[in-house]
Specification:
The structure is a homotetramer. Chain A has 10 helices and 14 strands. By secondary structure, chain A is of the alpha/beta class. In chain A, helix 5 links the parallel strand 10 and strand 11.
């Protein structure tokens, strides 16, 4: 970490600060110049509170020079993490395709959808039982009944299931869920992250729509610091000034995540764009950018979907997308 | 609501859609032109799912023309809501000043801080017992013990207290808390919003850092639709490309909120900027923009604060800020 | 266009407004409901000033329902535009690769670079003679001398050249330039756009870093409305809150542009990210998303580049990128 | 400046880099730790190209610790700059109010408007002769004829005039203009900035809608480095995800600018919000935040304005706004 001292800072105060830092087991080096003195701090700075340092009256600005995350950091764990979901793998060359409806509506809908996405090549089934909705008047999911139907679809097809947890109070309903999804709006629900660090289930952590890559990795660090190493990251678009798409799909996240961390990343073009006709080109772009998987919304009848119909593709369209995805995965030497 | 049909839309499909809409008790009017047909929908459209409509194959785009919120809407409730916290009021001409440390650290700190902010003119005491922190390695608050100390400070000074709830699992600890704060990261924690709609405590709802004014009001609608009308909105800065301040303080929120809703709004320049020297000018700007109150972080010794020291002002600086705030409130005819 | 009238609007004023609109040759249809009256306006609304309409006291809000651009609109020109640069084509299945250094530094540098990018498969040479730099103290290009060197490289290799015009006062120097680039900062330099509409040279129009797709197309409309149909769009990243990359590369722009307009789009991952190691995955993602071409910065010795070294790749790295790009273009049936 | 070297960087390469930096007359200090070596660079780093440094293979990241601007920097010029426009001053305690229509439409309109804003207390007249418009089909100003009418209004009222220059090719028409405005879209039109550095006219430099405070100050540095010290900064809102206002009015810019530079800043709530009913609260907020002036659009008949009617206030509304602005200026000890 670097502390740039104000040019008005008295030497005595600088010396005092240096002593305090060294008392915490850190090494410091000062560069004194015409305009300012720079204190370079080396060692484990992850426990230093950057905001507390910024409050020091002689500090003009304080900057981190190393990442604040450790367990998720590629530097300290060079090999890719492969998340194994009862035999189906994601990461380290294994490609995962998570498909299914935004929300579970009926046994016929979810089981039918599961069979068709499996036939097209999906290896995970998604479906929402608890739905975050901006309006209190919108359909908010079948809740417990929805989870039962999802488990029926799992039994019928053998596909591992991925579904969102919206509150710790529902956790006991998730025992037979294979992958617990943390939605974008809960990416910084720290109580939930800390709690899920104590279970051993794979967690699919969606990026918050206004969160930086670094904040996203810090949320993954919460889960790993609790002891759970099975974290899958999911890019789903960020909020920008552009309104042509619901959010802006940050395809750069795939190569960036691979450089910064060993955890796998899947891409969700459905929520990112909110437009079904954009799913195919963006799914293909995701594979070519190096993603470890995809999350795609599929609905047997998008026009009648109780939620997010505009971004769902039909089973036929999904099969067509998968033809290209498989070809590109082959080109990227991904195992399917 | 407006549905613009594709210029390729066959009349039969348009007629079918119109019938379905009217079957839901809505009136429709079609404008057919050279390039497209526009279906105007009038009536209670709050239950229509805009995303489902966008999925209809003949729909080119769908736009709301009236606000999706009802209970919080100024149009249906023209008088200002005055939130009465055991006699201390906010809104409708009553100005509230909520001050105190970011986090509660010790009895001496919180009680001392409470006495000094009261002396300077604050009428609410704030202090965090449960702290949302980006890093799992940072100080996360004294939790239950912190709430006890806050209650001690309340007893000593008589100031009503405001503190953040981070998860429903802690709710029973909040019985003697006067105002429950929902933090920016939980603004769309819909399970929590729905639950707090069933209590009768005043709720201070912070704006999420990437949420629009409309989404913010929809979250307030969640609380009011549960039966709790005591909602206070709090602007605390939004995330933009600018890095000179931690967030961008959206001062326009004050007059906008007053036009769109009857609920009161307080402004928090401390979290918005992250810089203590910006608090005074932005607190003054807030009053002149018409805010109903302020939330300001005050710490007896910012340099030693366990959290957010950089944005905390000393009790002396707070008293100086209050001198100007009182003068400007007088100019705005606010009751203090 | 839609005008939503305030619920307080007197019928007489609504009738007066409708008359004024119809006097302009537009058809109107009113939908009167409990809360408001909606006036649907059909016809050529491109000359209506939406801001003037918003100023009308009875207007609550005014919304466009059809695109404000006409000549660039896919609806009125369904076939892809193929821009032919002295025989080298971009668009409609023809893929263009524009490569070269950020700025022209010497004859050896630009000629050497031109030969190596041509050998690797580039079909256009780029190089900056006039450089937009944030700091007045930074290197701002060799100007006229740089253009001479670029023309030498063109003679030596036969590659058509692309270079940026920073002010109309330099236009006479561009007679032998094949494609004139308008940089992101000049995307809304309307005087320049209007003037370039009167020349017949192909224009590469970069997207402004805070401009929407619609604003970008309106700038292309400026050029086309002057009579110049040879417009190539170039996505180079937009400004967001994310700081891990210099800008956020909006890969969705490729499929969006293809749906909205007939003009070709090339992608520039170099400026978007500012990081050379991200060029390969994002170049590949661009091809798979359907782009009509790429713009990539190549420098024989990035560490010694006078500008933008961090985002330039070496000729060797460029050749490696091109191997994958050619394979993916083949998969997309693009002519090379 | 700080260079953080990769933990894999060989000492020999670090030594070589240090030598090169010292050869440029800079002092360096190295901090070598477990994970990385940090090179602190002290001296005049304004000529160092941060991007070239980032391209060095051993550099992990490079960060500035001092501002890249010098002439505009408050550190090297502690007194406020007072811009004197033929006797009317802005900055250093002098408050300027620039008012008038968005565009000049007729002699009657501009002269009438000039008289009414002067009567209400404005000390500058604004009016657009050359108008930047997103659409090539919109009204783009009366151009040369507009400037003549503006000069007539100046003669009639004695108010100094402020108007926008859209291209250097029009510069000779601006001889009798008192303050040349550079619009948001031209904030980084570096050719124009450099040229205006050679004239001695006051320049009103608007902030670009996606530009940081630092980039804005670098554009002011362009003008000052040419020899022109008469620069007035103008905040007019930045582009964010929020759509309730046209742009987000960054009121923090006033105190930030005062800390970073000695140049005066005026605030333009009209363009920031696009809504006339927001002008009054935001004008008041600007004064209380410490602004040196205001820029407000006034039109005798907003509904008939040829441009930006929605954000223009009537002369009566302007007089009402000025009553409060004068009171608040008095409270801030601003000379009027």
């Amino acid at each position: 970490m670097i502390i740039v001292c104000k040019n008005t800072a008295p030497q005595a105060k600088i010396d005092k600060l240096v002593k305090e830092l060294e008392a915490q087991g850190l090494q410091t080096h000062c560069s004194t110049g015409a305009l300012s003195t720079i204190i370079g701090i080396v060692g484990d700075t992850s426990k230093l509170d950057i905001e507390a340092l910024q409050a020091i009256d002689i500090a003009e600005n304080v900057q981190r020079v190393s990442e604040p995350y450790k367990l998720v950091n590629r530097k300290f764990h060079t090999d890719d993490t492969v998340v194994d979901v009862n035999g189906t793998k994601i990461g380290g060359g294994y490609f995962g395709v998570i498909a299914g409806p935004c929300s579970i509506e009926s046994e016929e809908q979810i089981v039918g959808c599961a069979k068709s996405v499996k036939a097209a090549g999906a290896n995970f089934l998604r479906g929402g039982a608890f739905k975050p909705r901006t309006s209190p008047y919108a359909f908010r999911g079948l809740k417990a009944r929805g989870l039962e139907l999802l488990l029926t679809a799992k039994k019928e097809t053998g596909l591992p299931i991925v579904t969102e947890l919206m509150g710790l109070e529902h956790l006991d309903l998730f025992n037979d869920v294979d992958v617990i999804q943390i939605g974008a709006r809960n990416m910084q629900n720290f109580e939930m992250l800390a709690e899920l660090g104590h279970c051993n289930k794979p967690i699919l952590l969606k990026r918050g729509l206004a969160n930086t890559i670094e904040e996203w990795l810090m949320s993954a660090e919460y889960i790993m610091s609790g002891g759970n190493n099975n974290v899958i990251l999911c890019e789903r678009g960020i909020r920008t000034f552009e309104t042509a798409t619901r959010n802006t799909f940050d395809v750069s996240a795939a190569p960036l995540i691979h450089k910064l961390t060993h955890l796998p990343i899947v891409m969700d073009p459905s929520h990112a764009t909110g437009k079904s006709w954009l799913i195919k080109p963006l799914a293909k772009a995701s594979v070519s950018a190096g993603a470890d998987g995809l999350m795609i919304e599929v609905h047997p009848n998008p026009e009648k979907a109780l939620c997010d119909g505009a971004q769902s593709v039909t089973p036929e369209a999904f099969a067509d997308i998968m033809d290209d995805v498989k070809m590109l995965c082959h080109f990227e030497h991904k195992m399917f």
